[in-house]
Amino acid sequence: MPSPSDHHAYPTHWEADVVLRDGGTAQIRPITPDDAQRLVSFYEHVSDESKYYRFFAPYPRLSDRDVHRFTHHDYVDRVGLAATVGGEFIATVRYDRIDENGLPAHLPPPAEGEGGRAPADEAEVAFLVQDAHQGRGVASALLEHIAAVARERGIRRFAAEVLPANTKMIKVFTDAGYTQKRSFDDGVVRLEFGLEPTDRSLAVMRAREQRAEARSVQRLLTPRSVAVIGTGRAPGGVGRTVLRNLLDGGFTGRVHAVNHAFPEDWTRLDPDGVPAHRSVREIDGPLDLAVVAVPAAQVPAVVADCGEHGVQGLVVLSAGYAESGPEGRDRQRELVRQARTYGMRVIGPNALGIINTAEGTRLNASLSPRLPVPGRIGLFTQSGAIGIALLSGLHRRGAGLTRLTGADRPTGTEGMADLAGMAGLAGLAGLAGLSSFISTGNRADVSGNDLLQYWYEDPQTDVALMYLESIGNPRKFTRLARRTAAVKPVVVVKGARHSGSAPTGHAVPTTRIPDATVSDLLRQAGVLRVDTVTQLADAGVLLASQPLPDGPRVAILGNSESLGLLTYDACLTEGLSPLPPRDLTTAAAPGDFRRALTGALGDDTCDAVVVTAIPWVGDARAADLAAAVRTAAAEAPGRGAAKPVAVVHLEIPGLAEALAGVGDPVAAPGAEPPAEARRVPAYPAAERAVRALAEAVRYARWRRESGEPGRVPEYDDIDETGAAADIQVLLAPPEGAPRRDIPPPEASAAPEAFAAPEAPGAPEAPGAPVPDGSGGVGIELSAADTQRLLARYGVSVLPALPAPDPDTAVREAGRLGYPVALKPTAPHLRHRTDLGGVRLDLGGEAELRRAYAELTAHLGPADELGLVVQRMAPRGVDTVVRAAIDPGAGAVLSFGLAGAPSELLGDTAHRLVPATDRDAAELIRSIRTAPLLFGWRGSKPVDTAALEELLLRVSRLVDDHPEVVAVDLEPVAVAQRGLSVLGASARLAPPPVRTDLGPRHLPAY
């Protein structure tokens, strides 16, 4: 009789696309009976040696019985997964559940009236990888996925028997990072390892993910051959334009023009002089990159041709996808699915293209007519319009032209009225230039996360600039951004900040968290978030060309007192500490600037210098002033050489270009640059220069602090096991039975007489179903259950006792002890002191009865108000502590002052969970109203240490128990000594899926 597991349907959710070690992709999916012929064909391409390693004996072919056994699975006790490329198997993995004797076992159904016998939780696992695909990391990826499947099916350990000579497979197991036990018996190595993720296994998985995704981007940016598919027969058009740009940029590899409409006798496309083909299939030799510029309806056939030819990646410029509506969205999904089937990554569709300025590549596979000057900035945009504006700005200002032909580069000061807000981009190119540029359009596959993986280890990139309109995986983005920011700055502009939705072409999940929360989470990860593209360029200029400042002290010097004062005010606005401006007077010559700057750089009381300049009367030229500033900056001794310098100038033509080094002779390889070679950024407004400098100060401070990361404290009184048991009871009450009561935790120190019963109107059951915020349904805990759960983590809530009538209020107040507070719990009145709904410091029965009568007279009947009495807490500052789960970002801890500061002004700070002691300290200090906690206008400072501990305990609760999807403590009264939690609520739901802890996979949008 077949076991119940035989009835399990095909598990679609096990299907995944993965990036392999060499940057190619493969699809992982369960094996089905329809795969019989694929399995046979796969096995025929495996060497005899690999077959011997798999079966421990010569095994030239699979029998019909073998094929049936390896393609028929119940998806519980017997599971097989295959890695495929082009629809064909390249590797397989299989597990079989075994009992303690190593014999086949099954997951038993519970016996009637019993819990059932304990299921076997061990399985034997075995791999087979085609020889042509060994060394690509296929087995490692399959191990991650089969382990996740096994955990889902109740298997906790794997066992594998491997021949000692099969060192590659032994290494796959030993390098995975799981806790292992190894033995040797009868000529076979036996490995046993648990499947629960460990810190080491997660680190191994993420390191492999980084290398694979970085390599996949590197393959796109460093092709040896490129085909432009859709090249027109006559000049003009998208395809022909890209072809011309490739050639004009000096691409070092081979270029092919492809168009099915070319005459059959064409072999070359003139006047470009490149090979012409009617199809990719006609191209001899390997082809690394295809730029697709054909109508959307023709793209599937092009992708198939590219896949069959072995193309590694696609840049799809074609429009007509998700940006055009539902049909286009389906077309976009099919494009990604088809490309990944052949192991290709996709940039686009609706993309502007990609650029790599490295001397050995010089790739301009984009619609930009010029290759920018090589430099140290990596630039990523999701918007083609923003990409065009940035690249056009570089070209129009004359600093971003390629040096391919050696022709004179324009150095004029032509305005950019048609690119408002883009002034200063010439400085970006002249000062730093670009290492790489990627504009992904609809970002259906390659995204900003992939570029962060690449830039993290790219030696040619020192600064990462990103324009984002959507973040498909916020949790992964913040993790990658934090790692990248630890070694180089990451500056981000986020579009669609207030709409709450991604652009129509971006088929990605959207996050519900407010924009202010996104900013805080990016800041926690070390990302510099700016508001405009101009600020993006301004910050990039300074970060790419100047050292990081040691602190916020800024020296200001120049020949205009007024401009110096404007700079001084801008520094104060940005939170910097400016020194009094030094006025050199309008008679100052370039030599005066040089001497003053040299002195400021040698002054230990400043960390950065801003030079201000206005036009002067006399014969001095902009080039002379630029040479004076650059020489002083370059020759500064000691600590002065480590100080950033920025220039603010008004209407001095040519100064910005001269400071940026536009026109400097190119130094020979290995030659020492001249002393004046240090380039200095120039800005047309004090506010822009100071804002960029402030971003550098903030980033430098984050870098210093991240070098000493905080820790997640351990608290001896936390009862994690007890909390887990409570949560299990609350989430899964016996069907048809009343809720089981939860015993009070031993850690609770509240007297039994003060145990708080449920508030009026609270349900007898754990709570009515409510949306959990992640698409499911959770339960709102009663007041009593909330207090018990919090007490497990050492968080005590001041009891609030129901007062349905005046006599009960008096009786309960007597139990608590006067003075007391009387307040409503109705949702529309809760925490609304502004409506007069709270009465405080009631010192006796008469005052309490009078307050009761006033509230019911003014606000409504007692049964609608839900009145409660609560013992008065020590006076202090009322605050709010919250934690909530966002499906994309994960658990977020929030803090603010209660009432108007947080509700009206939005003065709330946020950090990702788990929070460290450093995070908690920063959290309470980062709100604008933080001075109220530290003794504002003569008041006494409150107990911030107790507040930080409360934040850390709440963080631990939601981190330890992902079923706790929301916690709200309001108000929390923080006194000079200690604090009191006066109100609390909590919500439970089945834990959301943690995709960041599972096996590596590409997003499926």
Describe the structure.
- The chain has 28 helices and 40 strands.
- The strands form 6 sheets. An 8-stranded mixed β-sheet has the order 1-2-3-4-5-6-8-7, sandwiched between helices. Strands 29, 30, 35, 36, 37, 38, 39 and 40 form an 8-stranded antiparallel β-sheet that branches.
- Helix 10 packs across helix 11, helix 16 packs parallel to helix 20 and helix 17 runs parallel beside helix 18.
Q: Report the count of strand segments.
A: 40
| Overall residue-averaged pLDDT value | 85
Residue ranges: pLDDT <50 for 5 or more in a row? 1-6, 110-116, 395-427, 667-672, 737-766
Strand content: 15-25%
Strand count, sense and closure of the main sheet?
8 strands, mixed
- Looking across the biggest beta sheet, what order are the strands in? 1-2-3-4-5-6-8-7
Radius of gyration: 33 Å
* Percent in helix: 25-40%
Total DSSP helices: 28
Structural class: alpha/beta
Straight-line distance between termini: 41 Å
Sum up the overall morphology in one term. flat
Write a brief structural summary.
The protein has 1005 residues and is an alpha/beta fold. Helices cover 32% and strands 20% of the residues.
